[in-house]
Amino acid sequence: MPSKQELPIIHRPTVALGLEGSANKLGVGIIRHFPRPSSKTDARRPAQILANIRHTYITPPGEGFLPRDTAKHHRSFVVKLVKDALKTSGLTPDDIDCVCFTQGPGMGAPLQSVAIAARTISMMWDKPLVGVNHCIGHIEMGREITGANNPVVLYVSGGNTQVIAYSHQRYRIFGETLDIAVGNCLDRFARTLQIPNDPSPGFNIELLAKKGKHYVELPYTVKGMDVSMSGILAYIDGVANDIFSGNPRYAEDGEIITKEDLCFSLQETIFAMLVEITERAMAHVGSQQVLIVGGVGCNERLQEMMGIMARDRGGAVYATDERFCIDNGIMIAHAGLLAYETGFRTSLKDSVCTQRFRTDEVFIAWRDD
């Protein structure tokens, strides 16, 4: 492990361009960090968001997004989004200090397409590259926006489900999914129901769940600090297929179970599982704060359930809105600039992407113990 060092004193503002494209969202962000008030380590640097542009690849109802088609989307829009971000920020390439990009985890082809764009921009503008772990981007952006100091982090998205806490300059994974991520579970059930993918399948499930009245008992699979969701998905898919095949299921009051009831039941079950393992992590590390990050973190019911648990423990929940919880370029710019300010750079040789880039692999040089 690298040794902990005093962070360098930076006497001028620094600016980063960030590119995100690990899944179906292509994001470009520009952020400015102002100098620290002193050389003390882990002192927060005031940040200014200058641009946060995003474009989403949306498929027809019932269909997921394939890697090759998603990569084609990113290649088609990345130049426009970079130009739009510069125009929004009022900056020129000369004002940029570094070019940051998502190095993983994520879908291979989309990651590669954005990495190529980042390398090209880096060489064209003669700016250093900074590869960023996607999960670290979510966490650091969440900390920046909410002001959470040292929370237990619930990271929930289409490709990731992890409970995380910081210790000794690493984000340690306390628990995670053993199979599919919570966002993937919701997205795949949305395909079963043939509901639209615009603006996102998970959001549309959330809307339907608010109309649900009956709870359908589903498998509840918590294994220590980990969760499993593939069995839950298979079970509820079977119930949904029965309903669509003309074999209705009935609630205790005799009413027919609807798709709204199924969405409600799925959310209640998997969110309860996430609350359970998050509470256990809070008890372990003695934290009173929960920070929810990732696309599923926008879900109001998840925030509500987590809030009830946290308040019972005398704590609080921190969450962001869709500008920052859904994949975006500004989180990559922010996390990349934090690393850049500690002297970190990514060479062209080392700028390859990896679909399995673990959260706890990253040395967090910008935070104190």
What is the CATH topology assignment of the largest domain? Nucleotidyltransferase, domain 5
Q: Which blocks of ≥5 consecutive residues have pLDDT under 50? A: none
Distance between the terminal alpha carbons, to the nearest Å?
14 Å
Q: What name goes with the CATH superfamily of the largest domain?
A: ATPase, nucleotide binding domain
Strand content: 15-25%
CATH architecture of the largest domain: 2-Layer Sandwich
EC number: 2.3.1.234
Keywords: Acyltransferase, Cytoplasm, Metal-binding, Nucleus, Transferase, tRNA processing
GO molecular function, one term: tRNA N(6)-L-threonylcarbamoyladenine synthase activity
Family: Belongs to the KAE1 / TsaD family.
Give structural attributes:
Nucleotidyltransferase, domain 5; 369 residues; five-stranded mixed sheet; 12 strands
Q: Quick recap of the structure?
A:
The protein has 10 helices and 12 strands. The chain is an alpha/beta fold.
Can you offer a commentary on this structure?
This protein has 369 residues and is α/β, with parallel strands linked by helices. The protein has two domains: 166 residues, Nucleotidyltransferase, domain 5; 172 residues, Nucleotidyltransferase, domain 5 (2-Layer Sandwich), CATH 3.30.420.40. The protein has ten helices and twelve strands. The protein has a five-stranded mixed sheet with strand order 3-2-1-4-5, with helices on both faces. It has a five-stranded mixed sheet with strand order 8-7-6-11-12, sandwiched between helices. Strand 7 and strand 8 form a beta hairpin. Helix 7 runs parallel beside helix 8.
